[in-house]
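Continuing the batch. This is chain 6 of the set; chains 1 through 5 are on the previous pages. Same settings as before, nothing changed between runs. Recording input and output for traceability.
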Amino acid sequence: MIEAMRTRPAAPQPVTARNLVAIASGKGGVGKTCLSISLAHALARRGEKVLLFDGDLGLANVDVQLGLAPRFDLAGVLAGRYSMKEATTVYDEGGFDVIAGRSGSGSLAAIAPERLAQLCGQVLELAGSYDRVLLDLGAGVERTVRYLAARAGTCLVVTTDEPTALTDAYAFIKLSVLQNPTADLRVVVNMAENRSEGERTYATLRRACENFLKMSPPLAGLIRRDAKVREAIRAQEPLLLRHQDSNAGRDLDALAQTLRA
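Output for chain 6:
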């Protein structure tokens, strides 16, 4: 039996889309959704056709942060009432499209495996119509989060300098590497006090990955703490639409440029 286990072929890797970027975090409260919105806007400003997909199943809030009231959302797609394409809302002010989730719908977080597979298939099919699809995932390492992240060509793991954020970001990276050793995982340090502090935060996470996982996820970007971010959230607008020249705005613009390189 042991020999059979050793020679058993590896499980096939899931179908992915190179232009699908998952934005994940092991922990809530790290500013992931605001970052996703700002990144979608920054890429759209560079001429890309962008779709922002709210994959935070059960606690979706992209539409809330943008002040949108979409006619259709992901809950209806999952119920089979309409297609993924029909659930797409054009966000004119930012120049990108949005598929909204359903905030407070806990049933979505417990979606059946076969329905989740169908959902991913629809996302991959729709990705062919865009230059970039950003998938704003829920916090944590639950089954639905890891399943969706595995379909992305690139996964940005967002963390802050808080010990729990670093610990949970490491847990997400660890499980992702176990699932797919060649996964393209990159770190984004959000709400850094300054660049030096952000680099130290990244170095802490990188060392843990090198010591225990024997891999080193690259740093995708540092986003400095900025009061303008909170102001943009209150105004329900993307940061770059309201405060393009803010510190965080420039950092997010640099992140978009790095992602395009």
